Amino acid sequence: MSSTVTSGGFGGGKTVKVRAGRPNAVWALPAVLFFTFFAVVPMGLAFYLSFTKWDGLGDPKPVGFANWQKLLDDPRLTQSLGITLMLMAASWVFQTVISLLLGVWAAGHQRNRAILSAIFFVPFLLSSTAIALLFYALLDPNFGIIRENTLGSTSGAFLAIVFVGGWQFIPFHTLIYQGGARQIPQVLYQAAAIDGAGRYRQFFSITLPQLRHTITTSTVLMVVGSLTYFETVLILTKGGPGTDTAILPYLMYEAGFKSYDFGYASAIASFLVVAATGLSLILVRLTGFGGMRSTREGM
Amino acid sequence: MESNRGRSTGSTGTAFSRRWVLGAGASALLTTGLSACGSGEGSGGGGGETITAFVYGDDAVKVQAAAVERFNRSTASKTAKGKIKLEKIPGSDYTPKLRTAMGSPSAPDVFFNWGGGSIKAYQEAGKVLDLTDIIQKDPVLKSGFLPSVLAAGDLKGRHYGIPMRGMQPVILFYNKTVFAEQKLQPPTTWDQLLANNAKLKKAGITPFALGGSDLWPELMWLEYLTDRIGGPEVFRRIQDGDAEGWGDPAILKAAEMVKTLVDDGAFGSKFSSVSYVNGGAPAVFAKGKAAMHLMGSWEYSTQLGKFPDFAKSNLGWAAFPAIAGGTGDVRNVVGNPTNYWSINPRTQNKDAAIAFLMECASEAYAKDLVALGDVPTTSNAAALLSSAPNPEYAKFQYDMVQQAPAFTLSWDQALGDELGTKMHTEIGKLFAGKSSPSEFVSACKGLK
Rounded CA gap, B430 and A4, in Å? Predict the structure, then answer.
């Protein structure tokens, strides 16, 4: 994306440079067009489809609110919503704790930390599908490394999804926390050291409060991201055992591409869009992130 | 979370624009390259039109590839002024890909399917040609196939497809080495089966391999149990659209027997995370960790590919045992009668499409199937079977299907995608112990 944006502006040549890098509206055009055609239009179409019955053949037939009514009545949706929220919470705890600690540790300038951080980052460069396939093989009950019925038991399957998701995304959030921690002025630590604060006291009284906005950013990404957690579930458990790991995106996939009930699948999709937008708005409000109050006020 | 991944932040504009130009150039090259390929294949012969056939892309596809080659060289192709281009679509993607393609301008002219419920939606949308009259008028098509197999793909008594692959009855396979060591015989009654299970468990061997994570291998158990207990009529009623048919006592009894098997450890303790598709269940079976495997006839070619020594000398096969007090005939079979070719009514060259279907009813085609280890569903198949890689196995399958008073189509295929998917979910819950037999029955009754 960014390549298109920049090269679009590059065509403007010298005039742009004269304006000292102040982008005008035209700069945003490629991105806006891309976003319109590949995000807004499909979203609108999905919303339209949610008011129709369509099996992928023939033409969609309008059915009014039938799919939305079904959404409210479907016991599987309630179960799925619960699982999705649980997955969201479990992933948040698992990923935040580890990536916060790793990120703060990696913020130091020692060479070994730089090398190890680079290695830690590798999982994030792999595709989620490849990672899920890898863990699927490792967890094979007969030929894997952990020869238990991991993916066949409710708690095992759930924890496996949390773990595999964490394994992939912790590096990314570590990077965010590393950047955040590096921005904390050293003078704060120096002053605290003079006042006799130990390492733990420094962490809880300086590092954590200073990382407040970083935590919000990372949390929003995790929470909204866990609503699109799909490949891992598809490959590891297919929603099983029974329906115990069928999160909302999987339910949507099943309705759309296994049952060919695209109307209902679109209703679930629209619901997901609303839920994700709502959740991130609430998070931003609650944390005061929107106000962008500085963490260094009065310094 | 994945959405984060597209966010790379660039360095300078110049660097990016150069990369962009290179990228654009590369994609332009790629496009021209592709279109060159396209026109190369599309122009075939003396200005005839090339039509497309979608096929399920597994190992068996070489038979269809050979048929296409034969057809494109034949006089029938010249008369119809058309050639066929075969598109092999990897197995798990086949159904969704066909579904999306059928609504687009690049829809296939001829397509592979499972008949019955699998094409019901296509029939309702007018996307599949009624072949009944064509078959009636043509002696080769009319008498060329086993009537029960031709009929198994029907919708309301009309034919929409021509059989094009081997028959796929579900068979009780057993590991001969394990059976010899434990001094067992393949069970012919349910009591014998239970007695075998007890002995096997004592010896630390799982009685049955089961790829539970795929769900459809679990369905096979329910299909046979229901048939043996209540006969083929029980599912026929459900297939005909009466959801109350799930309330038949035979279904509840079958579900209870499943629960007993699961609770007794007949499938071991890990079956719900074992898969057939990734080779887990076949390996457990071939290595003797499990003694038996209820599976479609393709198990033979699967084992031949993965464990050839086992397939050739230690793989045994038997019919599903009888159940005391059940009304179903012990000769009844469940499974997929075969696969079918159907025609898209919007094809630009119907003559070529029909001519190609005739080619697939030829003896040469049937011989190719036999050479692959398949048993064709043609009326003359019996005579060809002696040249099969394993004539004994081929003969067993052929007799099994030919003598069967009823051949019940796999329930998921018969019910179609929407109901089939929901039924799979319920069956998964039953086997995983997430729902009781009576909960299973009432959940199935509610499937719409």
Answer: 52
